[in-house]
Specification:
The chain contains 4 helices and 7 strands. The protein has about 160 residues and is of the alpha+beta class. α1 packs antiparallel against α2.
């Protein structure tokens, strides 16, 4: 038996991090301003301190999004696809090509604006369905086509 080589891991594009951080700003900056102004004007300046809560969430969320983005990666191996993610709780999913039933590429309006797409993998067992978010559309389509081809080849042998 030959030595098994390490899989070649591929991370998510930096556009995913930019998109997520922009969404964080879009939600929390107006919330911070609103919680500073409304209670401050209606109930008194001391109540404007509630604006520190969304501001703290923004300050905490910014680096956490970076950690989360770096944690996502995938690797194509001879018989399966590995997906790894998670900062506090690491999760690694192994999807055997022969178990693939459907591979979808999806892209919502925000993802399309950032030129991103996601690959959704459906397997024979619903518990092993997996998703790879935030890929370049060309990479998502290439991965879909390759996984579909490998899935058909492996399932034909069953």
């Amino acid at each position: 038996m030959g030595a098994q080589t390490e899989p070649r891991w591929v991370g998510l594009p930096v556009r995913v991090l930019r998109m997520r951080r922009l969404l964080l700003l879009v939600w929390l900056v107006p919330l911070t301003i609103g919680t500073a102004l409304l209670p401050g004007l209606l109930a008194g300046p001391a109540w404007a301190a509630f604006a520190l809560l969304p501001l703290a969430l923004l300050t905490w969320g910014w680096p956490m999004l970076g950690h989360n983005w770096r944690s996502w990666r995938y690797a194509e191996r001879a018989d399966d696809l590995l997906i790894s993610r998670g900062v506090l709780w690491r999760e690694e999913t192994v999807v055997p090509y022969g178990r693939l039933q459907l591979v979808e590429v999806t892209s919502g309006p925000v993802e399309r604006h950032f030129n991103l797409a996601s690959v959704q993998l459906h397997t024979a067992a619903a518990a092993t369905d997996a998703r790879i978010p935030g890929l370049a559309p060309e990479e998502a389509e290439r991965l879909r086509d390759r996984l579909t081809e490998l899935g058909e080849a492996r399932s034909a042998g069953l």
